[in-house]
Structure formats: structure tokens, C-alpha cells
Amino acid sequence: MSQNLISLLKNCPTQYTKKFYDILFSENPELLSVFNKTNQENGMQSEALAEFIRLWANTIENYSEKFMNRMKEVAEKHVSLQIKAEDYPKVGKALIKAIGSVYNLTEEETNLLLESYKKLSGLFIEIESNRYNQIQESGGWEDYKEFIIAEKTLANIQGDTISLTLKTVNGEKVLPHKPEQYITMQVNGVQRHFTITDSGEDYYKLLIKVKEVTDNNSFSVTQYLRDAEMNTIVGLRPPCGIPFKLDNVIPLVLISGGSGESNSIAVMQAIKESIKNGQSDKLPSSIHIIHSTQGENSDTHQLDLPVEQLRDLGLKVSYDKYYTQDSYSKNNTIHIGRINEKSLNSILDNHNNNYEICASLSFSANLQQILKGWGVAEDNIHIEGFGPSQEVFDSYLIGQDNPGSSVCSFAHE
């Protein structure tokens, strides 16, 4: 591939990826249902794909370990959406057309670009085929399985977050999940991903932030779930996502913003089960939970119980909250205002920790800057963002984002 074309891809502008989606959907309208409409309209998905192309171009001759890690995370998203091998030629065709529409590709460049894409898509297909087989062999299922809403409660005073328990219709066993994995839910033909906070033999538990819509032409899955009757049926696909590894003894800091607390809850539940099962030799020596929310009315207090449970099991757990919109708190572990470098430094014993962050892109980007400034090692930072990409983060963290944040052409929130 010519250096001019590689240079172009390394700096891939979103006009290419916007054009790509226009072509892809016009030629393959059936793929529209795979994508999140909001992320398409606000440009996040186009930027996500542009970022992935930039990463690809920077390692196109010999894929780096970081890029392979990113591919595996994107592949998990593809599996969760049941992307098939036959979909890849459609994507490749649209991508080459999009690039050719704004850059005068020679015949040689077109062929080289096609070969490079075949290499990329072939590896995706191999990874995803192995995951489909693994899910089946582990007791999973194809497509959607029917679940019922078995329990539902409002999780905060504000009423914009719900705790949901979904059970299999006939009491069938579910595929066990691992921390930081998510399920794909379909309601009225719309798909959404939700982090699993806990599971049992026949159920999954979720903590969901409700998105209100007033436009009659729009549909909110989360609003539907909040208003749905008990025993309402929804479709779920098996859990997907790169799981959090409980294999490091250095202290763990879990930082969340808003509904990102689901991630922290899932990790704490996994730690609790490991201790109960006598597998505590590789668990973190201590845990520090840090959560940011608007205030008392928005606080779900869903972190409180798992914190106490871990303490009861003998683990050293620190717990701090930040209320960004309240003006006063009598509790000295509740801080008023936003997390900043000074306040974060004041509550941490030291900087030598593993950091798991699940929050909005801007929130996470700010924390990343702080941790980089402290000299925290790249391998000790793991960021989970909301939405389809991590484009606001530096390439310093390439290969470390996840489910809710994979940068792929099929990404879905």
C-alpha cells in the first residue's frame, strides 16, 4: 500500500466514515437495525469508526498486541450483535467506495486496500467464530432467548434509575456471566447493551439509567423497561465482553460516574464470590470505591451493600462519594463537587493501584489525564466509557476500552 494512502488512513477524517455509513445503509438497509440511531445522528459512530481506521493504519503491516486487544474487544461487540461472516464483504465494499469517493484511488491502491481489509475481516471472522462456538459449548444459545421481568424497583429518589431482575421464562439455567460482561437486549426491534451486575441459576440483574423521550417518533428501551408490567417478555442474547481479571494483588481503585456504578458492582460481586469459594490468593490487597453522582436524590446507594459485604468478609474497602450538585453533606466520606486531581490525591493512600473507570467520555478523559500525570503505568488503567468509542482518550490507552465502548462499524450502545 502506498505511503500516501497509509498516511491518509492514519489521519482518517470523519467525512470518510460518514460517507461509508451512507453507502452501507443505502446498499444494505437491513443493517440499520444493528446500529444505535442516536450515535449515528450525533456523529459519535462516525468518529468511532474513523478512530479505529487510524489505529488500523498505524499497525497495518504487522498488527501490534494493543491492536489485537482492541480487535478482541470489538469482536465481542460483534458477537453480541450476531454479526455474521457474510456481513464483512458488505462493509469492505462500502468502505472502499467511501474512500474512493474522496480520494482518487489507483487500481493498485484499491487492490492493496482490499487485501488489507480481507486480512482484517478474516481475523475478525476467526475470532468471532471461536466465540460463537465457545458460547454454545458453555450452555449458551443462539439469537434471542425469552426472559421475563421478574423484579423491578426504582433505585433512587429521583426515579431515573431502576434495578431489574430478568428470569428465564421456563426456569432454564442462564449462561453465567463474568465481571464487566454485558447482555444484549431487544425490545420492539431495538437492541441495547446493559452491564450485568449479578446473576443466578436462572436470572440476570441489571441497574439501568432511564432515558426519557418525548418525541412520539422515538423509542427509549430504558423508558419502556421502567414502565413495563411484571412478566413482560424481553429478548436477551448471552453475555459478551472481555471480563475483568481477578488476578492482581495490588490495590484496586474502582471509579464510576452515574450509571457506571454497574461496573463497580459487578466487579465487587465477583470478588465476593471468589472469597466465598476460597480463591482469595490473587485478589487485590484492598479496594477503594469512588463514585460520582449529582446528589442525594440521584444516589442509588447500590454500592453500599456490596461494600459492607466485602468488609464483612475481611477485605479492606474504602468508600468515597462525590455529589456534584449538592451543597452540603454531614457525611465525611461524601464530598461536594466534582472529582479533581487535588481531591483524588487526598483520598488515595498512594498512586500505585489498578484503576477501573466506568463513566462518561469526558469524565474518564479527565481522570486519564490525572493518572497519566502521576505516572501510572498503562497496564494499570482500564477505562469503560459510555457510547460507541473512546475517541477522546489518548492513544496511550489504545486497546483498553470495552463493551460499551468498542470502536467498530457495528458498535451499539
TrEMBL record:
Residues 1-118 form the Globin domain. The keyword Oxidoreductase does not apply. InterPro entries: FAD-bd_FR_type (IPR017927), FNR_nucleotide-bd (IPR039261), Globin (IPR000971), Globin-like_sf (IPR009050), Globin/Proto (IPR012292), Riboflavin_synthase-like_b-brl (IPR017938). One of its GO terms (molecular function) is heme binding. It catalyses: 2 nitric oxide + NADH + 2 O2 = 2 nitrate + NAD(+) + H(+); 2 nitric oxide + NADPH + 2 O2 = 2 nitrate + NADP(+) + H(+). Keywords: Heme, Iron, Metal-binding, NAD, Oxygen transport, Transport. Its EC number is 1.14.12.17. Residues 142-246 form the FAD-binding FR-type domain. GO terms for biological process: cellular response to nitrosative stress; nitric oxide catabolic process. It comes from the Bacteria. In the C-terminal section; belongs to the flavoprotein pyridine nucleotide cytochrome reductase family. PANTHER family: ABL201WP, FLAVOHEMOPROTEIN. This is nitric oxide dioxygenase. It comes from Rickettsia bellii str. RML An4.
